[in-house]
Amino acid sequence: MTEIAITRTANPKTPPADDTLAFGKVFTDHMFLLNYDEGKGWHSPRIEPYGPFTLDPACCVLHYGQAIFDGLKAFRGVDGQIRLFRLADHARRVNRSGHFLCIPEIDPAMIEESIRALVEVDQRWVPHKPGTSLYIRPTVIATETFLGVHPSHSYLYYVIVGPVGAYYKEGMNPVRILATEKYVRAVQGGMGAAKTAGNYAASLFGAEEAQKQGYTQVLWLDGVHHKYLDEVGTMNIMLKIGDEVLTPPLNGAILAGITRDSVLTLLRDWGLKVAERPISIDEVLDAAKAGTLEMWGTGTAAVISPVGELGYKGERYVINGGKTGELTQKLYDTIVGIQYGTLPDKYGWTRPLGNRLGG
Ligand code: COI
To answer: What is the per-residue burial (b if ≥16 Cβ within 10 Å, else e) of 142-177?
Structure first.
């Protein structure tokens, strides 16, 4: 693997106080960059001072959205050790997303090393307070200057990182979500399983309407029947009805969430009944009315986020008395415990900083 060239900033900034951290507003001193040119492949890995790019106004990503990203986190444990959570899985997902958008594959070892090296350079930015972390955003954009619609012949892969607190202003308090039958996020056969800019653009209009009605997020229903749960856009959705945990299957329209996978692994390990199957909104509403429903979202940014209220067709359904459910809390405590090193990592999900690949 080519060595990463490192140029350190001459003007290091002061990281903000941990208790002022929100999500995605502050970035560190450095960024990682890697270019692709047809005939040359991916080349010139480097870490440089964080700063703006210059892009030609005809650059194709600005017109046709050929772009993908991912999101993962580094945690400063109670023992002072910094741990990257599920690094290899996120690196694989960068390429899976890229595949949908005709973006040439990047050596997964280079993706892992780009992230490890950048976090090492900016490690003083990893916050200390429980609930905070360093959010890592690997991104690929198409950079060719042209207005014809075809895959670009050049790309930029870059990684930026920044200290974050909770994604939702509610923190670990239950959020309200609105199931909409009016708009759709993605359909099977489309790009719903890719972490691509367009999926998030598609979610904005519906989300604005939901927010005007007092909801935090939209619960997207399937694009064909407008009946089956898909995902929330910023997180996958899970629920417990009676003694069974349910989550929508990876049907091509939803993101294969890595926190979703961690949670399913834990639940199966704990011996719970788990099904990945289509879940109709009617089934969920019946369980909400019967008081047998617990619901939560899973995501890197959102972690485990309890759902306290569900809106649908003008009605509001309170879930679990609007409180965080017992299983939701247990999942949160376990995932967070592994991330911060207070619980053993028997699944090998964390990579301590300082461990190079193969080392
Ligand atoms: C994440 O959980 O990392 C996400 O990418 C969700 C969102 C902030 C876009």
So the answer is: bbbeeeeeeebebbbbbbbbbbbbbbbeeebebbbb
Residue written as token pair 């939702």: 168
pLDDT in tens, 81-121: 999 999 999 999 999 999 999 999 999 999 999 999 999 99
From 85, 218, 234, give the residue whose CB has the most ligand 1 atoms within 8 Å, as the site to mutate.
234
Domains of the chain: 5-165 (3.30.470.10), 175-340 (3.20.10.10)
Residue 255 tokens read as 């993101």
Distances (CA, A) of 289 to 8, 20, 315, 319: 58, 39, 12, 8
- The answer to whether the CB of 301 is under 6 A from ligand 1 is yes
Whether the CB of 234 sits within 6 Å of ligand 1: yes
**Angle at CA 346, nearest 5°, toward 345 and 351?**
45
Chain centroid to Cα 190, Å, comes to: 19
pLDDT of 358: 42
CA 290 to ligand 1 center in whole angstroms: 32
Taking the centre of ligand 1 as the mean of its atom positions, its distance from the CA of residue 351, in whole angstroms, is: 20
Whether ligand 1 lies within 6 angstroms of the CB of 257 is answered as: no
* Residue 156 parent element (H or E): strand 154-164
Probe residue for ligand 1, chosen from 300, 304, 335, 339 as the CB with the greatest number of ligand atoms within 8 Å: 300
Ligand 1 centroid to 155 CA: how many Å? 22
Number of H helices, E strands in the chain: 7, 17
